[in-house]
Write a structure and sequence with these properties.
This protein is mainly alpha-helical and 279 residues long. It is globular, with a radius of gyration of 22 Å. It has two domains: 210 residues, no CATH class; 55 residues, no CATH class. The protein has a three-stranded antiparallel β-sheet with strand order 2-1-3. The longest helix has 27 residues. α1 runs antiparallel to α8 and α8 runs parallel beside α10. It has eleven helices and three strands, in the order αααααββααβαααα. It is found in: Endoplasmic reticulum membrane. Pfam families: FIT. InterPro entries: FIT. One of its GO terms (molecular function) is coenzyme A diphosphatase activity.
Length: 279
């Protein structure tokens, strides 16, 4: 039986490569690390459906990718026959989750991707209602907290004239810009597709499935298709080419780490294997 990991890796790679190439040839990508551009709508928002960040694919799926992946994984794991319900598969999910958290949310302080942005020359940018922006200390972005003239007067002492029309309660969230802003979406979508493809393999080694598990497998395949579509649209419309490449490589690396978990994903008997091969 073909290895689902290799098939999905080939399809995902093709989607990212072709999407990135298209974005370069037709100049469709938005440099999300440019503070002068990132707070504004994509220039193609009105003519290209997926360039609009408010599209349902982005809002309901891509931004919640690991939640969907986790939910479907456990639905599949719980509904699968006992011989494929192994601890190794849960440990793989736990390791993949740790990789996701470390890169995008927290790693003994700022996430690894946030640290990379700062190390590569990034700045903490705070956009003002006028369209101008203020550069703040990196710690203001690391805290992920809203900033306002009333709560952080020391940060706005040199902008009294610009802030005069504003309410002291006006606040906004500073974001890290410039530097190398790895595509977190490409990273997570790549990790998710490869992880789900790998989790299909134990079920495909069985000669038959319980009815409820069939629904889990259908959901798995559908979600794989959604993640590949999301990878392609992200590659076409967002981030610089290098940021997409590094996001993809980090996703593949994160998945490869899950392959180092010892043990087997099934506890099939010789009789099970014979029945599977006969189908």
């Amino acid at each position: 039986m073909p290895d689902t990991r290799k098939i999905v890796l080939a399809v995902t790679t093709t989607a990212v490569v072709l999407g990135t190439a298209y974005s370069v040839v037709y100049n469709t990508y938005l440099d999300t690390s440019d503070p002068a551009l990132t707070h504004a709508p994509h220039p193609l928002t009105n003519t290209h459906y997926f360039a609009n960040k408010s599209n349902p694919l982005n809002v309901f799926f891509t931004k919640k990718a690991w939640g969907w992946t986790t939910g479907l994984f456990f639905f599949s794991w719980v509904s699968s026959p006992p011989q494929t319900r192994t601890a190794r598969r849960v440990l793989q999910w736990l390791l993949a989750t740790t990789v996701w958290i470390s890169l995008t949310m927290w790693f003994f302080g700022p996430s690894l991707l946030d640290r990379l942005i700062v190390a590569s020359g990034g700045s903490c940018i705070f956009h003002l209602p006028s369209g101008d922006y203020l550069t703040l200390p990196a710690d203001a972005c690391f805290t992920k907290a809203l900033v306002s003239p009333s709560s952080n007067p020391e940060l706005f002492s040199e902008l009294a004239a610009d802030l005069a029309p504003l309410s002291l309660d006006w606040k906004a969230l500073p974001r890290l810009r410039r530097g190398h802003d790895v595509s977190g979406h490409i990273f997570l979508l790549t990790l998710s597709t490869l992880f789900l493809a790998d989790q299909l393999r134990p079920s495909l080694s069985l000669p038959a499935w319980p009815l409820i598990h069939k629904f889990a497998l259908i959901g798995n395949v559908l979600l794989l298709a959604i993640w590949i579509l999301a990878s392609a649209t992200t590659a076409v419309y967002f981030h610089s080419p290098l940021e997409k490449v590094t996001g993809y490589l980090l996703g593949v690396t994160g998945f490869l780490l899950t392959q180092l978990v010892p043990g087997s994903s099934t506890t099939l008997t010789d009789e099970d294997k014979k029945r599977a091969h006969s189908h």
